[in-house]
Amino acid sequence: MQPELQTMAEQRTELSSLGEFGLIDKLSEGLELVNESSQLGIGDDAAVISADDDNFGLLSSDMLLEGVHFDLSYVPLQHLGYKSIAVNVSDIAAMNGKPEQITVSLGLSNRFSIEAVEAIYKGMKAAAKDYQVDIVGGDTTTSHSGLVISISVYGKVAKEKVAYRKGAKEKDILCATGDLGAAFLGLQVLEREKQTFLANPNMQPQLDKYKYIVQRQLKPAARMDIIHELNEKDVVPTSMIDISDGLASECMHISRNSGLNVAIYEDKLPIDKQTYDTAVEFNLDPITAVLNGGEDYELLFTIKQEDHAKLDTHPDIHFIGYMHKEQVGNVLITKNGNQVPLKAQGWDHLGQK
Amino acid sequence: MQPELQTMAEQRTELSSLGEFGLIDKLSEGLELVNESSQLGIGDDAAVISADDDNFGLLSSDMLLEGVHFDLSYVPLQHLGYKSIAVNVSDIAAMNGKPEQITVSLGLSNRFSIEAVEAIYKGMKAAAKDYQVDIVGGDTTTSHSGLVISISVYGKVAKEKVAYRKGAKEKDILCATGDLGAAFLGLQVLEREKQTFLANPNMQPQLDKYKYIVQRQLKPAARMDIIHELNEKDVVPTSMIDISDGLASECMHISRNSGLNVAIYEDKLPIDKQTYDTAVEFNLDPITAVLNGGEDYELLFTIKQEDHAKLDTHPDIHFIGYMHKEQVGNVLITKNGNQVPLKAQGWDHLGQK
């Protein structure tokens, strides 16, 4: 036998010592792109591939694992199917692109009946319809452990409109869509109700007053509406990323990739009243939830100052800060005008375990 | 709580009642393609997508799960990485295409050290180099259970050269590459040695005389060499599929998709001496291993009769049968001239559990 896992133990460095982004950096070392058609590899929301004279192709993949990304004791299967498509569409949106094809790979244990799989697929089909994307392939297999959902999405973007993380310029305005922290607090509510239910199965969950934030956790939307509106208003973001790991973490990505610093205003951060109230109820700082709560799948992007007027009246685009190269680094400007360093404590799917 | 899995139990149909292909058929019901760029959805080795004026894009995904597709007690991590890329490349080869980009999603438990993940990646990089394909993205996450590898591949094919499963015509010649049944018998050897080792850990595995077939199981090759040669000789297969589930099963796909029947000659089936001898040693019928053993990742394709001369002297392309529409159906013509119905007992990753 070839006990690879054991021999490896001679030199054993724990995954958690690197974290998710550190591991990706390490694995990406020495990866060269040999095909002319590979315009951009690892390091943005999607890879960029030559398509036709006018467009680039975009390719991205995401994997959702039971017990890590979702808990089937409170996640309805149909919503899970919907969400798995939406989070992939969001990666294409973050490149200012339009998703067109999706492949779906499912690992299923015999715990799942055909009816259960159909429920997942019903959600996927609903999302495919909402985002006008075609499910064109995939793989279905037995899993001996939990449910595995792996999705890849292919999309297109006009060459002159592709938005990378790296394109922000000094004095560009930083914009965030929707509101933030809601999905994170929705998760806290669902986890609390689960514990209550486990302690006393006769207790019915109290979710009515948390309807909005629970919905944001269970069935997030990809902001393709924003992409279409930016296109209509002829605004091309100078940089963009989707907010999956938390606002602070995404700010860091734009900062690092663009070689500039970010300043964001505490009093400009968009937060829904239900998110705010629930944070207070849970003894959490609402601003921390906004900065570090993951899974909102809103968009963070920068625009040139001259484009500000075109978006000024948009109800769902918030001007939260700007790009600079002051030595102070990435900062949060508090309500009373203090600058405090911006720290990312985003979701790390390797480090947290 | 929303006990979806329990409520579903009210009407519970077991996955095994449908099998993998039945489930895929069921889930594909009502899937409409809304984007003009979606040339072909589910049902072939890869989806076909509009690319530029001369080429189609090809998109395919495969998922490998620990305990289902591989056993880490005898699969070296580096070979596993190599194989996971090769099997995806094989799907693009089966469309007569060339792979260009790959995304890799990994689900890792804390059982894995960084060194172990690097071993997987080393194999992936070696395969990427061999097949001239770029690793451009993916996802890395914690898994609470086994190792999960999900890969998607994007490739290109000249529009007039794309090979579907459906294109075979009456009297076309059926061709198979390489030899068959080897990977299946390699697996039998590895499983036997594992049992021996578990019974007596002091026993060293006896693999020398099985080197070829074990290699075929652990590190299969995608036949991109054949694709390049067909291209050089200006032969466009009228239909094609890769042999992942077993020759008989793949014959059925070409038959069903092309609306014709297959006849294959027992004495034309390519089998390596080591495969044959090992089948006999295991009291297995060598022809059954060739017909139903999976994971060889050779190619099965049809050509027009007039192209026969162009491939006649190729040492690794075997003319194993032909397409017909006789009422007798899909048949194996035995050495003594009898026609027996061809039955597929290929690997069904849902039904077999």
UniProtKB/TrEMBL annotation, chains A, B:
SUPFAM superfamilies: PurM C-terminal domain-like (SSF56042), PurM N-terminal domain-like (SSF55326). It comes from Roseivirga pacifica. ATP binds at residues 121, 138-139, 165, 244. It holds the Pfam family AIRS. The gene is thiL. It catalyses: thiamine phosphate + ATP = thiamine diphosphate + ADP. Mg(2+) 4 binds at residues 45, 60, 91. Mg(2+) 5 binds at residue 245. Mg(2+) 1 binds at residues 61-62, 139. GO terms for biological process: thiamine biosynthetic process; thiamine diphosphate biosynthetic process. This is Thiamine-monophosphate kinase.
